[in-house]
Design brief:
The complex is a heterotrimer of chains A (about 160), B (about 270) and C (about 100). With about 160 residues, chain A is α+β, with helices and mostly antiparallel strands. Chain A has helices at about 1-45, 75-90, 95-115, and strands spanning about 50, 60-75, 90, 120-135, 140-155. Helix content of chain A is about 50%, strand content about 30%. Chain A has a four-stranded mixed β-sheet with strand order 1-4-5-2. The longest helix of chain A is centred in the first third of the chain and has 42 residues, at about 1-45. In chain A, about 35% of the residues are buried. The mean pLDDT of chain A is about 85. Chain B has a three-stranded mixed β-sheet with strand order 1-3-2. In chain B, about 35% of the residues are buried. The model of chain B has no long low-confidence stretch (mean pLDDT about 80). Classes of the chains: A alpha+beta (about 160), B mainly alpha (about 270), C alpha+beta (about 100). Chains A and C meet through strand 1, helix 2, strand 3, helix 3 and strand 4 of A and strand 1, helix 1, strand 2 and strand 3 of C. Strand 3 (about 90) of chain A pairs antiparallel with strand 1 of chain C.
Chain lengths: ~160, ~270, ~100
């Protein structure tokens, strides 16, 4: 009887508890993260980013620098559960979409922060990449890395020096 | 205005289309429905396919399981022989497939019960056997249990349950195939048959009894006895827990007798008093 | 045509999970090789959806063109992939008018 209850706890109650905790905490963490990203995006508004391969002819830039930003965001227990259910029947994995968005926006913000540190105010040829990072075996935690990189310039005539 | 600007795009284009809980609820419902469909398909598929298995395989499966026999006193050995003799006579008037054989077991136990199980085994408890005061009623009981085996009801029931539990095991990752197989051991004594299977076994037994004695008198005493026991104890005997609908069954047998013009005035064969 | 306004990086992404039934077909196909038609279609559908999301972002910024569009695909778990499309949202005008 006691043994049965313990088994029941580990098989049913514990995952359920983890789900609830994962959902509640995960939602709070996500909301806070997005709020932080939004604030920093607003703050970095004067650092521009474009996915243009060439420098437009009418744009005068100087002091090129390679800049990059990346962020690794982990999946919470609830998202993983939602995804494993979806994995059976297929369809959009809404739970992971917000994860990628957070990772990518964070990476962009970090790239822009680096650009600003270097005195740049425009990043050209921005490229975005995403990688899955999985540590351990089959049931290991899953996280995604987003990477944003590009070439940062200062607008207008400069001294031509690379910083 | 500057030709180069970075206005902020609106949120929620690439994510946040659906609340995560709604998404989980939806996919759980679909997965649940699919799972139920799988389990049902496995259950009914196995029930349908089970009779295709040769009887010898069914027998081999059960022979690996613990022996049903028990130590017997001389009196009990006599009862066992009595049971075997009557079973052989009932078998002789039923059409058994050539590879099928029936093994009967007399078990000293107060339970008012009898059952047929895998491998052609029929178990009769003394609690039921002793309440049957005519050979005709006993033949009806044996005919009923043997008919289950001829109709392959035990293997249907066991395979259905086994396949369904296998599917559950595989889906939930535990995949405890050996556990499921072992669980069939406990299934052996607790097979439940459908109402249709019971009705068919009743009818088959009725034909056998009529052929054996040349009349149908006394056969339904089996069920009348059950009714008396139910009234006396306030609850139905164990035998009826898996054999419901007493009145409907007696009625169906009476109808069968009328339709086939069976004699109802034959002499009941008494059984030796113990 | 000339660009009169650059509006920055716009992107659209979808995360798509394949379902077990397509998986079974794919497993069979893996025995003999060849194109996994169902997967090709699935990924194309999702890529199309990503493009549309990117276009809605650009539209919301008032752009009428996206330059230098790129795709990027990455798997997240077994059987789920993210399909990303991004580019630079711009406003273009006909030379005749500009």
């Amino acid at each position: 009887m006691v043994e049965g209850l313990i088994t029941l706890f580990f098989n049913l109650a514990l995952p359920l508890l983890l789900l609830v905790v994962g959902f509640l905490v995960g939602t709070i963490v996500e909301r806070r993260h997005l709020r932080r990203i939004r604030a920093r995006e607003a703050e970095l508004r004067d650092v521009l980013a474009f996915a243009l391969r060439r420098i437009p002819e009418d744009l005068e830039v100087s002091a090129p620098n390679f800049v990059a930003g990346s962020a690794v965001i982990s999946v919470d227990y609830f998202k993983r559960f939602a995804a494993s259910l979806r994995g059976l029947i297929g369809g959009r994995l809404g739970a992971y979409e917000s994860l990628f968005e957070r990772a990518r926006r964070e990476a962009m913000v970090r790239m822009k922060e680096e650009a600003r540190r270097l005195g740049a105010d425009i990043v050209l040829n921005v490229k975005l990449e995403t990688t899955r990072i999985q540590a351990g075996g089959r049931n290991a935690t899953i996280s995604v890395e987003a990477l944003a990189y590009g070439t940062a310039y200062r607008r207008g005539e400069g001294d031509g020096q690379i910083h | 205005m500057d030709k180069y600007t970075n206005p902020t795009p609106p949120e929620g284009i690439s994510s946040g289309h659906e609340h995560p809980l709604v998404d989980v609820a939806k996919s759980s419902a679909i997965v649940g429905a699919l799972l139920c469909a799988f389990i049902l398909a496995a259950y009914y598929g196995a029930r349908y396919a089970a009779p295709l298995l040769p009887f010898a395989w069914e027998k081999a499966l059960v022979d690996g399981l613990p022996e049903l026999e028990a130590e017997r006193s001389t009196a009990q050995a006599a009862r066992q022989r009595e049971l075997e003799v009557l079973a052989a006579r009932v078998v002789s008037v039923m059409e058994l497939p050539p590879d099928m054989d029936i093994t009967v077991h007399y078990v000293e136990d107060d339970q008012v019960n009898a059952f047929a199980t895998l491998g052609g085994h029929v178990v009769v408890f003394s609690g039921l056997w002793k309440t049957l005061r005519s050979e005709n009623a006993r033949a009806m009981l044996l005919g009923h249990e043997i008919a289950h085996i001829v109709n392959r009801d035990p293997i249907r029931g066991a395979s259905g349950t086994l396949m369904a539990s296998l599917v559950v095991g595989v889906v939930f990752g535990s995949a405890d195939i050996f556990g499921s197989l072992a669980a069939t051991g406990s299934l052996l004594t607790a097979l439940h048959f459908s109402r249709e299977q019971e009705r068919q076994a009743d009818a088959d037994a009725a034909f056998a009894v009529n052929r054996l004695y040349g009349h149908f008198n006394g056969a339904t005493d089996l069920f009348e006895g059950m009714r008396a026991l139910t009234e006396a104890h306030g609850e139905p005997p164990a035998f009826l827990s898996s054999h419901p609908q007493l009145d409907a069954r007696i009625e169906a047998l009476d109808r069968l007798a009328r339709e086939n013009d069976w004699r109802l005035d034959g002499e009941k064969v008494p059984v030796p008093q113990s | 045509m000339r660009v009169v306004q650059h509006l920055g990086v716009v992107q659209g992404s979808t995360v798509q999970a394949k379902n077990v039934f397509r998986d079974i077909g794919a497993a069979l196909k893996n025995l003999v090789g060849g194109e996994l038609r169902s997967y090709t279609d699935l990924l194309n559908e999702s890529r199309q959806a990503s493009l549309e999301r990117m276009q809605s972002e650009a539209q919301a910024l008032g752009a009428n063109a996206i330059l230098n569009v790129r795709f990027s695909t990455s798997t997240i778990t077994q059987g789920a992939a993210e399909l990303l499309a991004y580019g630079t949202a711009v406003i273009v005008e006909d030379d005749a008018r500009g």
